[in-house]
Structures are given as C-alpha cells and as structure tokens.
Amino acid sequence: MRGLGEIAIADALPEAIVVLFAVVTTLADTWFVFGVLTLGYWFLPARWIPQPRRRMATLIALATCTLAAVTALKHGFAVPRPGGAATPEWLPSLAAAWFENTVSADGFGFPSGHAAGATILYGGLVFVLDWADRRRRAILFGTVAVAVAFSRVALQVHYLVDIVAGAVLGVAVLFGGLRLAGADVRRLLAGGDISDNLATTDPLADLDPTPVFLVASAIGAGGVVVSIVGGYHEGVLEGAMAIGTALGGAGAWRLVDSDEPTVQPTVAVPGFLVAGGLWFGALGLEPPVLVAGILAAVGVGVIVGLPALQRRI
Fold first, then answer.
1. How many CB atoms are closer than 10 A to CB 171?
2. Least CB-packed of 106, 193, 230, 289 within 10 Å?
3. For residue 166, what are the CA distances in angstroms to 119, 143, 172, 250?
4. Strands in the chain per DSSP E
C-alpha cells in the first residue's frame, strides 16, 4: 500500500477548502506551466531577468524534459491513482463539471506530474529571475509549489509518496538540466543574487537549452518504448509529443540569436494561438502518433522561434 492514511485526512477537509485546492492545482497543469514559460520567454525584459531569452528557453527545455520523464516513469511503474474527491453538491452545474474534470484525472499516479512541474516552474523562477531578492522569491514561489503538491493529495488524485517522488524528480531535472545547459550549479546554490556581478561571474551566463532538449527527446523515446511494451497507447502518444516538443524546441533555438528584444503583442497573439492550437490539439484530439509528434514540434518551434521570426519580419 502506498497510502499512509492521507486520503482519510483529505476526505475530512471542508468541501470549500477542497474546491480551493482544485483552483490551486491548475497552477501546475501542463497548459499553465508551458503558458507561463512561453509568456516569460517572449515578454520578460532584461531588467527582471538577465539574458531573458536564454534563461526562459532553458526552463522550457527543463519542462519538456520533466514531461518526458514523468511519462516514462508513470507508464513504467503503472501504479493506479486513488479515486478522487467527491464533488460538492452545492457547486453550480458548470463549476461542478470543472471540478469533476479536475479530480477525475486518468492515467497512472506515480510520480506526480504536477509536483514535478511545479518544482521546475517555480523552483526555476527562483534562480533565473532577478526580481526582488532570492529569499523573497524562494518564499513566494516555494509556497506556491508546496500548495500545488499538497492540492493533489487534498483532491485525492495522488498519495503523499507520489508528490514526494514528483518533487524529487523535479529537483533532479532542474539542477541536472541547468548543469547540462552550462550553469555552474555549485556557485548558483552557494551564492545569492547576481545582478551586481559581471557576466563572467554569473553562474547562469550563456545557458544553452539545446542539450536539455536533446536529452528530453531521448527520455521521450524511452517513454514510447516503455508504453509500447506495456500496451499503453496514451503513453505512446505523450512520449511522441515529448519527442516532438524537444526536437522542435532544439531546432527553433538554432534560429535565435538569444539577444532578441521582447516580442510585440501583434506578433505574440497569433503566435500563441497557432502554437497553442497545434500542441493542445495534438493532446486533445489524439491523432496518429506521428502526427501528434509533428504537431507538437511545430507548435513549440513557433514558440521558441518567434523572437527570431519577429526580427526577420
């Protein structure tokens, strides 16, 4: 048994608190994580984050790597989830439908993708941003990440061990991926903010997301193999999308000079619609596996390549 009695505790929570956690859990949904990272990649100015295109592209690569690893591990362990919290009867019909969709997560439960994704998104922002000071960022983003992880138990879609494993996976991908991208992780962990340092002493100077994207594609391929062996079509589809996302990101980054200005709204809006439509269309419509991979590659290619495309336009 994976459970330690936490589901019984979660079942005793007031219904209003459970509904609140259903809102909190969306802060690490796949669409939310990639949406925030996309907006940061396009719009964050240099006064808030040094080398914004490099750093945010690296976080996109880390999120892709996490997506691939979660897919491979979930279908490798093939461990079921708990049943999910009951829908409060007092919720209006539309809210009830949203809540049921939130707690009726299908697929396998170990490790928690939300806990891993929250670690990458919010943990990554602690280190790459130069807004406020690191201690304040750590308190703010750390609180959000912990709340998201606990929400999965409160909604009874994960056990405690699932979210702990997801957080550990997220930490491993975060620091392993930063090291792979060229960061000096030891100095990054030992030091504070780097806004007053020279670029040559910045532990995150000149990050290259390409190796992380390529590793993500390899992990995605492993997830496809594991899912084929286990007979899990959903895992094959998700693994193919992870491969496409990784290769599309790596290819598009070759077009970016890394010092492009922020993307203009007139370019960003159609880009966001096209990229989001392709990627989530592949996830929601479940086309043939090869088509899903291509759609994901083009979608993320648009996201990563848009600053370069704007420059050329």
1. 14
2. 106
3. 8, 16, 10, 25
4. none
Say which amino acid occupies 79: V
CA angle 34, 39, 42 (to 5 degrees): 120
Pick the closest to residue 258 from 171, 215, 199, 214 (CA basis): 199
Query: For residues 260 and 42, is the Cβ–Cβ distance under 8 A?
Result: no
Residue 156, both tokens: 């009874």
Question: Shortest CA distance to 114 belongs to which of 238, 239, 30?
Answer: 30
Q: Whole-prediction pTM value? A: 0.93
Of the ranges 56-60, 101-105, 137-141, 279-283, which one carries the lowest mean pLDDT score? Answer: 279-283
Of 181, 169, 235, which Cα lies nearest the Cα of 206?
A: 181
Sign (positive or negative) of CA dihedral 34, 40, 41, 42:
positive
Q: Which two tokens stand for residue 282?
A: 């592949």
Which whole-number Å values give the CA distances from 21 to 47, 101, 284, in the listed order? Answer: 34, 14, 24
pLDDT for the residue numbered 1: 60
